[in-house]
What does this fold into?
Amino acid sequence: ICCHCSLRNFGRAEEMTAIPKKVREEDPDYLKWIKWHACLLLARDTCLGPIDPHHVTPVSLGGSDRETLPLCRLHHDLANRREWFENLYKIDFDAEIGRLNGIYERTHRP
It folds into this structure.
């Protein structure tokens, strides 16, 4: 019996397959560049606080620094409810990430 969840482990250890951990892609220069931007919603709503790069996939789940959006503290906290946030502000996180990465690649890579 598992001590944490009271579930029985019926398989033998050699039969179990480990799930590989996603390697987190870090890019400190990209994060600095994102922090330089205004909040993505500045033209649509009142912003509050400095820019916090919002990792669309949480860092704890292997989220990449290249999958971040520039959001003020207020919007950063709200963006954790992704579907609600995208519908409210009519914004597509994936499209914005692609747009920002495209700009960064054109202006910062040789």
